[in-house]
């Protein structure tokens, strides 16, 4: 295969990321709209085509408003770093407050101008019991928003309101990174082989991987990363730390505490059950 043919591949990692973004911001709300138009009485009131237009417009605008309000919450509480479900729940609840007048206005326009005899029933539906109707719509919005954000963030690795560690350097997207069938390497960008990894640290549902003077925070469980590193010459010195043997500079003992100092200056704690092992091998 020629170099020109390799470089002309149109479907890159970035384009796949763009497809995930398009799916999240367009396909998902439109799919929810199509389901709602089919399963509710809107199709009887406006006809199926009218119900699709009516629900799709509301769904898209509401979805985008939820993105803005959730991002506002995400930025506002950055110092506290709450979990994703809190950020999304508060953000979509705020969005529901803003969407109420929008839905009211759109319903009025459709009731007034849509060419069906039953279009006026749109206004009567919400007016019969506005409190219960509002609570029901809010509950649905919270469930849909939470489910979609968690699915794209956790399953599709499309970052949704993550708090990255501040000391991580920005990656250069122009580098042609070497990928591997190894899942840990597949998720990394600046590190292309396992023997370049010096230190792995668990950070809740994320893992910080260090090597070649780089640090990467990826959404990958620490236990799975250890399985990928099983054949490497290193050891788990703490429940949250793995180090490569060749990366160790010295051990540092302070009273009953033992640390490993890596060649890059990083101090890694050693759990008490591993003290004797570390003293033997280092």
UniProtKB/TrEMBL annotation:
Keywords: Membrane, Transmembrane, Transmembrane helix. InterPro entries: LytTR_DNA-bd_dom (IPR007492). GO terms for molecular function: DNA binding. Gene3D superfamilies: LytTr DNA-binding domain. Residues 186-282 form the HTH LytTR-type domain. The chain crosses the membrane at residues 20-38, 45-64, 84-111. The keyword Membrane applies. Coiled coil: none annotated. It comes from the Bacteria. This is Transcriptional regulator, LytTR family. It comes from Pseudovibrio denitrificans.
């Amino acid at each position: 295969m020629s170099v020109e043919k390799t470089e002309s591949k149109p479907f890159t990692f970035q384009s796949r990321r763009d497809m995930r973004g398009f799916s999240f911001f367009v396909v998902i709300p439109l799919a929810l709209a199509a389901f709602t138009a089919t399963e509710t009485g809107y199709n009887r009131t406006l006809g199926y085509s009218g119900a699709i237009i009516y629900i799709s417009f509301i769904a898209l605008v509401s979805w985008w408003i939820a993105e803005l309000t959730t991002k506002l919450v995400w930025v506002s509480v950055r110092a506290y770093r709450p979990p994703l479900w809190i950020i999304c729940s508060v953000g979509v609840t705020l969005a529901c407050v803003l969407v109420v007048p929008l839905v009211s206005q759109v319903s009025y326009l459709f009731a007034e101008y849509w060419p069906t005899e039953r279009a006026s029933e749109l206004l009567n539906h919400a007016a019969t019991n506005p409190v219960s109707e509002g609570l029901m719509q809010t509950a649905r919005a919270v469930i849909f928003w939470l489910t979609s954000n968690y699915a794209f963030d956790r399953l599709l690795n499309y970052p949704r309101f993550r708090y990255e560690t501040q000391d991580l350097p920005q990656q250069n997207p122009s580098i042609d990174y070497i990928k591997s069938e190894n899942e840990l390497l597949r998720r990394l960008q600046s590190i292309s082989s396992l023997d370049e990894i010096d230190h792995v640290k668990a950070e809740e549902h994320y893992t910080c991987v260090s090597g070649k003077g780089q640090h990467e925070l990826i959404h990958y469980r620490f236990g799975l990363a250890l399985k990928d590193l099983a054949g490497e010459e290193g050891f788990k010195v703490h429940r949250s730390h793995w180090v490569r043997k060749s990366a160790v500079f010295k051990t540092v003992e302070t009273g009953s505490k033992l640390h490993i100092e890596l060649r890059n200056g990083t101090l890694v704690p050693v759990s008490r059950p591993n003290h004797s092992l570390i003293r033997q091998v280092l």
